[in-house]
Amino acid sequence: MPRGPRWRSSASSIALRGADMARAGTKSGAREPRKANKRGAARLAAVQALYQMDLAGTGLNEILAEFENHWLGGEVEGDKYRPAEAAFFRDIVGGVVREQSRLDPRIDDALSHGWPLKRIDTVLRAVLRAGAYELACRSDVPARAVVSEYVDVAGAFVDAEETGMVNAVLDQLAHQLRAAEFDRGSAGG
Hints:
This protein is mainly α. It has eight helices and two strands.
């Protein structure tokens, strides 16, 4: 059973390892993070927002406002966070909320029998839902990139065993939802 995320005392706080991932880490002399870095930061923030919504019952508009005003590219407890692509963040969080009744059964089917989504740790549910949303609704992002990105996000919060589960579930969903990408052997990135 997953140990749970490494969160600070409140649900709205940044995870310790997640904070390391989100900190500005551009090379010396770089003025603006690459789009991929902004999307990675948006994915991390989206998972954190979905976690908070699930755990604390925070509403969509409230969570979007909180993250956009205080977290995305801001400074929290002395740490400067990488700027995130705000529109991408909003799309993931809003899309998961909008599509959750369609996504959750797909995730349940991809999970091992006896471990339905409702039994999965809250942070892992957020990761799986965000990844499933991108696979189902963001065909502009290669499936392999989606899987890889969310495995990395999961790694900011949980151990290798749980990231392996995220990889397996999202890979299965990717093959179901984006079969054409794998049939033609496209190399995502």
